[in-house]
Amino acid sequence: MKLDERLKADCHVICELTESTLLLLNNALVDWFILVPHCEEIELTNLPFQQQTAILNEVNLVARFIQQTCAPDKLNIATLGNVVSQLHIHVIGRKHSDPYWPAPVWGQSPSEPYTEEQVQQKKDQFTAFLNSTNHQAG
Questions:
Q1: Tens digits of per-residue pLDDT, 71-126?
Q2: How far apart, in whole angstroms, are the C-alpha atoms of residue 105 and residue 88?
Q3: What's the alpha-carbon Rg for the chain, to the nearest Å?
Q4: Which residues contact 124 (CB under 8 A, 6 or more apart)?
Q5: Which of 57, 78, 80, 127 fits a 20 to 30 Å CA distance from 44?
Q6: Domain ranges in the chain?
Q7: pLDDT tens digits for 35-76?
Q8: How far apart are CA 12 and CA 34, in angstroms?
Q9: What's the CA gap between 98 and 29, in Å, rounded?
Q10: How far apart are CA 46 and CA 52, in angstroms?
Q11: Which superfamily does CATH assign the domain made up of 5-133 to?
C-alpha cells in the first residue's frame, strides 16, 4: 500500500503498527496523529468487521498514548477523506490552550513545524508507550 502524497508531504512517519501506519501531522501546535490502515478501501465501514475492530484497537491505543503523554482536554477522532481519499483516521489531542480551540483544526493557521528532535522525541515516547503496553509494532 502506497501512502498518499499529501499525507507523505504533511506528516512524519512514527511507526508501522500491525493494521496501520502511524503518522504525526507536522504541526507542533496540536497533538495530531493520523492512522493510515493497510488497505485499499476508502471507507472504514466497508471493511470486514474483524478488520474494523483491529483498526479501532489501534485508534484506542493512540488515544491512550495522547491522553497519557499530552494531557489533552478533549480527544477528536475523525475519518473525513474529503481531500485525501485514502482511508486515514485523525486522532487529535485538543487543549483549551491550543490556538484553534474550540474551532475544528482543519484549515487553520498558524502552524508550527516540528523540529527533527521533537519528531524523534515523539517516536521515542510512542515506542516506550508500546513497550509498556506490550503492544507490538508491525
A1: 999 999 999 989 999 999 999 999 999 999 999 999 888 899 999 999 999 999 99
A2: 16
A3: 14
A4: none
A5: 127
A6: 5-133
A7: 999 999 999 999 999 999 999 999 999 999 999 999 999 999
A8: 10
A9: 7
A10: 9
A11: HIT-like (3.30.428.10)
What is the per-residue pLDDT for 111?
A: 93
Question: Distance between the two ends of the chain, CA-based, in angstroms?
Answer: 14
3-state secondary structure the chain: CCCCHHHHHHEEEEEEECCEEEEEECCCCCEEEEEEECCCCCCHHHCCHHHHHHHHHHHHHHHHHHHHHHCCCEEEEECCCCCCCCCCEEEEEECCCCCCCCCCCCCCCCCCCCCHHHHHHHHHHHHHHHHHHCCCEC
CA separation for the pair 110, 12 (Å, rounded): 19
